[in-house]
Each structure stands twice: as structure tokens, then as C-alpha cells.
Amino acid sequence: MKEAVIKTERLTKKFGDFIAANELTFEVYTGEIFGFLGANGAGKTTAMRMLCGLSIPSSGKATVAGFDVYKQTEGIKKHIGYMSQKFSLYEDLTVAENIRFYAGIYGLTNKQIKEKSEELIEQLGLQQSAKKLVRELPLGWKQKLSFSVAIVHQPKIVFLDEPTSGVDPVTRRQFWDLIYAAVDKGVTVFVTTHYMDESEYCNRVSIMVDGVIKALDTPHNLKKQFSASSMDEVFYALAREAKRKGD
Amino acid sequence: MSSVTLTNLKKTYNKGEVLAVDNISFSVEKGELFGLIGPDGAGKTSIFRMLTTLLLPDGGSATVDGFDIVKDYKTIRGRVGYMPGRFSLYQDLTVEEDLNFFATVFDTSIEENYDLIKDIYVQIEPFKKRRAGKLSGGMKQKLALSCALIHKPSVLFLDEPTTGVDAVSRKEFWEMLKRLKQQGITILVSTPYMDEATMCDRIALILSGKILSIDTPGKIVQSYNGNLFAVKSESMYKLLNDLRGYENTESCFAFGEYHHISFREEKNYSDEVLNYLKEKGHKDVEIKSVTPTIEDCFIKLLKN
Amino acid sequence: MKQLFTFIKKEFYHVFRDRKTLLMLFGLPIAQIVLFGFALTNEIKNAKIVVVDYSKDVTTKQIIDKIEASRYFDIEKSLMSHNEIEDKFKEGKIKLALIFPENFNNDLLHLNKAQIQIIADASDINTANTLTNYISAIVTDYQRGMMKNMILPMSIVPEIRMLYNPELKGEHTFIPGIMAMIMLLVCVMMTSISIVKEKELGTMEILLVSPFKPIMVIFAKFIPYLLISFFNVTSILLLSVYALDLPIQGNIFLLYGESLLFIVTGLAIGLLISISAESQQTAMFGSLMATMLPTLLLSGFMFPIENMPMPLQIISNVVPSKWFFIIVKSIMIKGAGFATIWKETLILVGMTLFFLIISLKNFKTRLA
User: Do B197 and B232 reside in the same domain of the chain?
Assistant: First the structure.
């Protein structure tokens, strides 16, 4: 019996007359890599903010890691990790300082912080660079560090906001190795992206168009359903309709 | 005659500390759709900026339409079209005003070269009175392209034009480029998206200021030595580790739904590996031969 | 030519479509004039004072009447005792106390000498000094009136004439100062921000890779702010003539001509700042530092330069506002002609050329 880490029921967010997220209903299970796809402006960010406890929904229900998105947002924030594409690392602090800082924010004890720091640095192979400013690290290393820092407190679920744009293919895979390792340890991964090739790494994928979830299944099944050879084509088939109506 | 040639072009930053472009040479023929494919920091933008005369090289030389990028920069500036990385039009001018402005700056008018941008412009025409800042990402790209084309340049430089744009707009953008090619304009495009490489006539794979390979996409794929297989099972992470632990694996990478694996000495060990995996307890194992993608080639080149 | 015109048109679009900029450009000058002109004046009027008259005779009454008649003072209450005075001072209710001792008139007539005690609240030393001086002046004046018919051995009577500003209105100093400050601020800041914005947005890149000459970019950015500054000058002058009662004594065309020169100075400084500033914030901050601070402190507008230590006096010579301030004062208040201010004008021209040449030489036609 798979446990649902995220459970939403007709989750909606309105801004005046504009319905950014429209009656979203879905579940994400423990240990899954769940891809939350959609074009820019489709409503992904709005949905994610609600799930992270950053925005109160207009209607509908949702729980994340067992916490209610209306009343228990602080609980949610304590039990999730978050990594954004723009990175959450301080460029003018060293690698070690960043880890210490975030571990501290997530409430780890000093002993835990020390242990985790050493573990992380070794895992990422950053022994030589621990005292370097993050600014001096190559892009790929920053990403890996960012991810590790996002799960330093072993959250139940980690939200990744377009994590691997622009990196070279090998670094990207090293990043996904990290994600796989985390999933193996029981962390659920919720990835939002508009890069379709990233979706191929996911167990299941949902595609949002104009605020509504138009498809939710494994990449394999979706490709079969739309007779497509790639997720790009699946997305294209779905999004094309919406594009004709708006800008 | 080549439209663009680079000869040992070099660029450093931070007083020589950072080598962004490392002795790069290649040429682009007239009317070609040429792709510069590589991740962030590979040197694509630096190359483009030198070719459009916005930066001076620290070594080597280059010509655009036969003109030297250092000595004849004024001439080049009057002839090329340029679309820089970030969206760079005036956000508080309307679509119409932006287009008019750039047309006038280039001493021409919208009417004069309308047929060139017609295909693109009809898509944004309904919004011509809207402020450029209020357009969606895809629309902005189309407007930027129109502004870069309005003076009928002989060479068009597009620096990561599809970054941040949704998949549908990306596809449409490349289709527009293909149509433009037919008008005889040489187009140089840079992009980090490997899948866009197949849309180009020829591509240069670039990493850390160096060119890994230049050829048509087809030939690059053909030159991939050895067989490539795609494997999947019920537990992908375990699969990855097990495959890497297999004695005859040359390299194995995650590729989304499947892992891609190549074997030692370019032999085919697919049956053996199937047994190996079954012994390891994998369920629903599937293995098949696949044609390498540009990304596979990139990774292989990187390893060497 | 057509290109230049289109560019200028675009610049005007930018200005008028940005609410914040509009407010700054037009609202700021007017706000400053109103503020400085009406509200802030370092004149003292209706200061609350207290008079304690232990004598209550004819003379003291005449003196008190005279004081009451002047617009500078507001006599609080004639208190009876010293102790109550101290309380009133502490409460800040009075700024000065005037005390006539007993037998004031008698002493004056029979001893030919009488004393008056003036106690002032010197926690605000400027006010204290001014008030004490006023009172002394009134008393001296009364005394002179008394002595009109007497023949004294020797007396020197100073006759004072305040040229150009007989009513000693503060506005006369402020208006030229404000003009200098606002014009400089607007020109420098708006020009520098406008150019840096193009750099930040990336549109500068596209403009460079075009047949449009870089110098045209500069020119096209100057023109809108030039016109707007002219408009501001006009509104400031109108306000000062009609609302603040400060007529322009000199030639108005000369005034506009000098203003034009000063505007160009500002534009040149703005250009210089824009070359090294990488972000709009830096440009704004740099502009503020380069204009407001020197103008406020070193132009002679708020603090007299002659009172400053020598090094500062020398430094003040490189502040353009100082020269413009002198020029405007000369024209507006003294009614001077070009013959008087040609030296200052030349200095300003020299400064402007200097800034222009340096900026144009360093204007980057490449990205690095």
C-alpha cells in the first residue's frame, strides 16, 4: 500500500477573476519521482506555492507530508525541502558555510550539522572546495550542492523547481544520480519543469495546461496514448490547443 | 564563399585567468543553419559577441561576410542581425513601436522587408498595440526575431533564442528558422538544448571553450563508435548501480525512462547482461538497441 | 536624421510611460520650491517671549509697546516672578525673557544709566542670537529716539541699507539655490539612469550592433531631458515670481541661456556616471552623491563658502553648482548683465567641455 505524501482534492487558486490553478486533484506517493509539467504561465508555480505552504488556496483541499495546506503551513515547511533553479546558495559564502547555515535553519543540532556537513562534502567530492566561495564553483557543482542542502534535514519530500537547465549532459546525469540516491533512501521528489526531457526521468508525470491538469500517467503510457516518441511531442499535442486560444 | 570564418579565435576574462574561448576555428557557409551546441559556460555567448563585434578577441581572428571583426566592425554592425541572450527589446513600447524603431535605426521600414518577417509577424500582429513587456515568452521571442530580421541582414546571430520558452513556441521558432534559411540568410544559433541540434544543417559541439566535434547531426551520430543499448527495469536506481558494476560495461548513464549503456570493445553483451540482471533480482527487465542521440555523442566525446 | 528623431521619440515614450519618472521630473521641482519657499524659512517671526516689568513706568511701557508692535515677537504673559520664568523656559514655551528692574525710569533720569536683563534660550543658538540682537536693536532705536533732541559729544550713527533684498527675505537665497540643485539632480540622474537602463536591459547591445552611431545615442538621450529641464526652469521661475513674490531683476533671456549651459553640464556629468555604473541603482546613488551633496554643502546655497576652512573653499571651486548659483543670483536678484558674469560663465563652459570630452572618449562602443 503506497502512502500518499501529497494529496490534493480540487485544489484551486484564484486571483480576482483569473483562475490560476483550477480544481487540481492528484496524489504523489512515497518514493516517487513526480514530474509536474506545463508551459510558463500554465499554473505550475501557483500550485507549487500552495503545496509548499507559501500561498493559501482559494478552495479545495490538500495535505503535504500529512500537514494541511491551510492550517499547518509551518509543519509543511519543516518537512519539505526546496531547490529553485535560481539556486538558494549564498555566492559569497563558502561551501561549508552554506551547508552550516541551511542545516541550522532546518533545525539540526550542532552535532548533526557537523556530521551532515562532513557526509555531504564527502559524498559530493567537495573536500578540496569546502573552503571555496560558492561563486567560484562551476554551475554543475552548485546545483549538486544546492540539492544536497535542500535535503540536509531528510525531508519527506523535496520540491525541485527546474533544476537542471543549462548544464552539460554529464553533470546533469550526476545530478540525477543524486536524486536517485535520495529516492532510494525514501525521499519523494516533486520536479516542476518545462523541459520535457527532464520528464523522462520521472515515474509519473502530470501536464498542466491553462491551470488544469490535462494528463497524468507514466511517461511510457502517455507516449503510447498520444502515439508520440518523446514527451516533447506529448506536450506539444496537449499544449497546442491552449496556445491557439491565448497569446 | 564562407559567410563566417573563425581562425584560432581566443578570449580570456579576468586578466587571462579564465579561458573562455580556446583557439576555435570553423567556418559557416552562406545560407547554412549552423548550431553551436553546448551547456552554460561553454563559450557560446563569448563567440557570438566577438563575431558581432561587441567584444575584442584576445587571439586569433574572424571574418563575417568577408569583413574583419576588428578592423571592419562598423561595416559588420550595419549588416548583421543580432538577438542577444536575454530578451532585449523595449518593454514599455508597443510591438508596433518596437518594430518601427528598429526598422528606422537600420534605415529601413517595416514595409520594405515585410515579406521577410511576414510569417512571424502575422502571429504577433493581433497584439501589435500591446506593450512588449506584457507579451508571453514565446511572443517576445518572435518579436525579437522580427526586429533582428527587419533590415534583411546577411547573417543572423541568435544567442540562445529558445531559453525559457515553452516547448510549443520552441518548435514553432525552429520551423520559422528553417523557412528563413530558404531566403538565403546565414543563421548561427547557439543553444544548450541537444535535441534542437537535429534541426540544424551542421552543428559544433562545444564545451569549456573547445570544440568537441563539427559536422552534420547525422554524421556525428554515425560516427558514434559501437553499439548503444537502452535498458530499463522496475527499479531504475538499483539498475544503474548494477549496470555500472557489470564487468563489461564501458559506460552507463541515466537517460530518463531508459538507461543508456555501451559495452567494452564495442561488443554486444546484451544477452549476458540480461542474465546478470535477472540474477541480481531485477524484474521487468527490458533491453534494446537504440540509435545514439546527439546527447549520447556529446557524453562520449566528453569522456574522451 | 530620421533615425535621430525616432530615437528621441522613443525616449519621450519612456519618460511619459513611467509614472515614477514623471513624478520625479515634474513633481520634484515644484515640491521643493513650495517647501523651501513657504515652509522653511530661517527668519524668525512671532517668537514667544516674556516680559517681566518690576518698574511699570512710562519708559518701560513705551519700550514694551515698541517690542509688541514688531512682527518678530509675541509677548506671552507678563509674569510676576523669576521662578516662573525658569519653568517656562524648561517647558520650551518661551525663547527669551526681558526683565526691567525696579525704578527703571528713575535710574535713567537721575543716574543716566539703567539696565535691562535679557535672558535667552541658547539651546538653539542661532535663534537666541537673532532674538537678542533684535531686542537690542529695538532698545537702541528707542534710545536714539530719546536722544534726538539732546546734544551728545560724539556719536557715530550707522546707516544700514540692505541692497537687492531690503526686506531680508530668505527666498532670495533659496530660489537660485534650489534651481541649481534641482536642475543638476534631474539632468544628472535621469541621463545616467536612462543610459544604464539600456545597458541593464541588453538593448544597448542591439543598438551597438547596428548602423546607428553611438554618439547619436547620447545625443538622443540628451534632448528629452534638456527640454524637460527647460520646462522645469520655467515653472520654477513662474512660481517664484508669482507665488513667492520674487521678481526677476535681470534679463530673462540671459537667465535661460545660462540655464541651458548648466543643463548641458548636468547632462555631461550624467553621461560620465553612466559609463562606469553597471546598474540603475548605482547610477542613481552616484548621481545623488555627485549632485545633492556638493550642491547642498559647497555651493554657497546653505552655508557661506567664505566661512569654511580653506581646503573646502578650494574644493568648492570645482562644484559646478557654485558657479551657477553665483550666476543666477547675479541675474535674478542683482539684475546683472553678461559683462558681470562672463568669468563664471566661462568657468562653467570649461567644466562642461571637460566632462563632455572625458565621457565621449570613454564611451564604450564595445561591451568590454
Answer: no
